[in-house]
Amino acid sequence: MPHIQMKTSIPGPKAQALLRRKEQFVARGPFNTVLSFAEHGEGALLTDIDGNTFLDFAGAIGTLNVGHRPTRVVQAVKNQLDKYIHTCFNVMMYEPYVALAEELARITPGNHAKKAFFANSGAEAVENAIKIARKYTGRKGIISFERGYHGRTLLTMSLTSKVKPYKYQFGPFAPETFRVGHPYYYRKPEGMTDEQFDRELLQQLETFFLSEAPADEIAAVIIEPVQGEGGFIVPSVTFMQGLKRICEKYGILFIADEIQTGFARTGSMFAIEQFGVVPDLMTLSKSLGAGLPIAAVVGRSEIMDAPGPGEIGGTYGGSPLGCVAAIEVIKMIEEEGLVERSQQIGQVLTTRFRSWQQRFEQIGDVRGLGSMVALEFVKDRISKEPDKELTAKIIAAAQQKGLILLNAGLYGNCIRILVPLVITDEQLEEGLDVLESVLTELLSQPAKIEN
């Protein structure tokens, strides 16, 4: 029996009524991929208020690596609710905060002494990592990368490299933030090898220190080991290790933003492990809490201790509920083999996607790491012109068939897969069958002739 059960079109009658209320009382700024409202979630399945059950290949934008409503996490939170909900760690401390810090120090890369600090969201984690880096180095400049995404606050928006919808008319932006080139091998200059492209970009960074901002005024470089919103773009080991060497050469801190890539998504606990690079600081959130708001900055003890008491913190940062959820998430990943499961899912996705690439001219590229895999759609493979409109049509058609998908990329022409790692083999194949049927329907149509 199929797991997807569609009883109405989307939005259904109940969803339409609730949409009218939403339009009256909710600001229009937050974007909504699915025009319906959740009623119940379980693993990789999400049921709306009209009784439609979807396969969720979006995972709340990579927040649900351990799935919707995992039993172990739910029970841990219920147990905590019976003790206390919140005391504010700045007022009276609690053991779950310390226990989670211990766990993150254990599982993050590097054998050096580490400490952790907790916040509410990924953007807050990035903000605080920058504050810590500036305090430790005494420098102000921060370098991020083309197509990188780090959040929607003033500072993180300044570091983000996509104007619409993230930055348009929201300036002026935070000073002393700079952006440099990042490898995008599918769109590298014609006639250039990947290795040549890496060398060119690293040399451009060296030149940047001469032309834009001196290295001794740069506190940190922040990079996603795999770009998330940017389209699941994976840099080479050569590039990442070269970047780390440049940071070490000039005393610049290396910050790995693992907010979307962390917690088994890429086939290792953290993506940076696959590049042979040990970061000075890491930012974590999303799947850390299985849907509860929690984020972390983890790093070398001497760097993390640079701010004095009261210089970082927040009322809800590291809430007891988020901490106990996160501790259980780590146990689930380790005890249930979700790192290995991510590798298996990635193999299935990549094999299937590459077979489609052979059939459909509009699939320009297939790329990713572990189960973090994307398809890039183009109008043709010669020009590689991005096809944002086709991508939107595919996502909309899949949704009507019960499959939830997300786009990504600077051009909005990629479909990214962030399926919960607890998905069964049968559910995974069912979702891929739906996507293949949509591609067959939409990409098999005769070319439209303009008059």
From TrEMBL:
Name of this chain's protein: (S)-3-amino-2-methylpropionate transaminase
Keywords on record: Aminotransferase, Pyridoxal phosphate, Transferase
PANTHER family the record matches: AMINOTRANSFERASE CLASS III, LEUCINE_METHIONINE RACEMASE
Reaction equation(s) it catalyzes: (S)-3-amino-2-methylpropanoate + 2-oxoglutarate = 2-methyl-3-oxopropanoate + L-glutamate; 4-aminobutanoate + 2-oxoglutarate = succinate semialdehyde + L-glutamate
Single Gene Ontology MF annotation: 4-aminobutyrate:2-oxoglutarate transaminase activity
Domain of life according to the entry: Bacteria
CDD domains: OAT_like
EC number: 2.6.1.19, 2.6.1.22
Pathway stated in the Swiss-Prot or TrEMBL entry: Amino-acid degradation; 4-aminobutanoate degradation
Named cofactor requirement(s): pyridoxal 5'-phosphate
Family annotation (Gene3D superfamilies): Aspartate Aminotransferase, domain 1 (3.90.1150.10), Type I PLP-dependent aspartate aminotransferase-like (Major domain) (3.40.640.10)
SUPFAM superfamilies, A to Z: PLP-dependent transferases
GO biological process: gamma-aminobutyric acid metabolic process
Enzymatic class: transferase
Family: Belongs to the class-III pyridoxal-phosphate-dependent aminotransferase family.
